[in-house]
Amino acid sequence: MSLLPSAGPLRHPAFAWYLASRGVNLLGTTAATVALAFAVLDLGGSTTALGQVLAARTLPMVALLLFGGVLADRLPRSLVLQASNLSSGLLQAATAALLLTGHAPLWAVVVLQALQGAATGVGWPAMAGMVPTLVPADELQRANALVSMTRGLTAVAGPSLGTLLVVTVGSGWAVLADAAAWFVAAVLLLPVRRSAPRRAPAERAGPRASTLVELREGWRLFRRTTWLWVVVAAFGVLNAIGGGAWLTLGPALAEDTIGRQAWGWALSAEAAGALLGTVALLRVRMPRPLLVGLPAVALLGLPMIALGLDARVLPLLVLTCVAGVGLEVFGMGWNLAVQENVPEAQLSRAYSYDALGSLVAMPVGQLVYGPLGDRFGVGPVVLWSGVAYVVIALLVLLSRSVRRLPRAPSPRTAADPATAAPG
After folding, report:
1. Contact at 8 Å (CB) between 317 and 271?
2. Which CATH number is associated with domain 4-194?
3. How many Å is the maximal CA-CA distance in the chain?
4. How much is the pLDDT for 78?
5. pLDDT, tens digit (0-9, with 9 covering 90-100), for 72-89
6. Whole-number Å distance between alpha carbons of 258 and 252
7. Would the pLDDT of 55 be above 80?
């Protein structure tokens, strides 16, 4: 079956340029993740030092997400994203310069990565909120599917590219290649012309509110939109489970059971499942995105149950592939729910609160699950965490506003999101 008819959003030049920019950015970032890890080790750093570098990038990113959401709702999102990309490119170029000279103190790498995390935190809400402004409402699902496909392909190709660069030319040159990718991503955004935001007349009149006022407006939007805060609150727990049980205890349990290579196959199977889900979503409509998305994301608990109960390679590969499909289905449902039922003028702020709730939870799980595994055994903890993951994801559907949230009518309206879901 040809995918060309489903690639209709690419007929819109602004979206095509945005997708190209995001693809280049994702490829460079995933490659640089591998390169930076080897760069820190090449400097004589330990795994603890590597963790410090990664944390230095994550914490400022989380801290500035809300400010980035306000900025992206106030200024043209393409401009905010370009500034973020250029800043990240300059900071990665500075990191590469230190590495290539052979005189890179670890503290300098930590500082530069912290600054880059800040730049990413400012730009991420703008990136997340741009898609609905670039395509018609009836092509929004296919546009999101193309973005997901790009993310999936770069997730497969990026680490291999980063490893190849490290082996052939060195980690410093690999980080420099990432800096070039940031610059190219910024240039590719030049042709993008952001459509005028659909704001109510009252929002256009009068002086611009302060940043603090707009942050409070974003919080009020988040708090009064039941389906939004219910799902984000649930994912605060789900991401802690995923970050702790699957990403932290999973490799340790796999090493004692199915082996390291099979664990790598399982992760690849999940990425393959995500790509399969994306291809299907190019054509299958989701009339109630969260009613479909939450049972789909519950499938992520199944590989944890299989790994903790009786780890076998073939069943685990099948279940991780199925989980990858489920993750992609939920991702599509969530993006459609937010993009179609939150007013465009507040869209980036909604995404910033979503990202904040998600990112804060993951390091919590990674810190807590180590002691839990030591106390109760890695296998039982992973098993019951998988059960809890499935139960929590399904319990969210007890909220009527979640399970009955519809797709927005076309053309997209700017109705109050608090009343978007019937009942």
Report:
1. no
2. 1.20.1250.20
3. 65
4. 87
5. 888 888 889 999 999 999
6. 10
7. no
**What is the C-alpha to C-alpha distance for residues 388 and 386, in angstroms, rounded to an integer?**
5
Whether domain 212-419 has CATH 1.20.1250.20: yes
| Euclidean distance between the first and the last CA atom of the chain, given in angstroms as a whole number | 40
- Asked whether this chain's domains 4-194 and 212-419 adopt the same fold, the reply is yes
The closest of 131, 123, 354 to 221, measured between CA atoms, is 354
What is the pTM (predicted TM-score) of this model?
Answer: 0.69
Place of tokens 């497969």: 156
H helix count then E strand count, the chain: 17, 0
CA separation for the pair 292, 155 (Å, rounded): 25
d(CA 41, CA 49): 8
- Condensed to tens digits (0 to 9), the pLDDT of residues 295-344 reads 999 999 999 999 999 888 899 999 999 998 999 899 889 988 888 888 87
- Is residue 411 reached through a cis peptide bond, with omega within 30 degrees of 0 on the bond before it? yes
The residue extents of the domains of the chain are 4-194, 212-419
DSSP string, 9-39: GGGSHHHHHHHHHHHHHHHHHHHHHHHHHHH
CA distance 378 to 381: 5
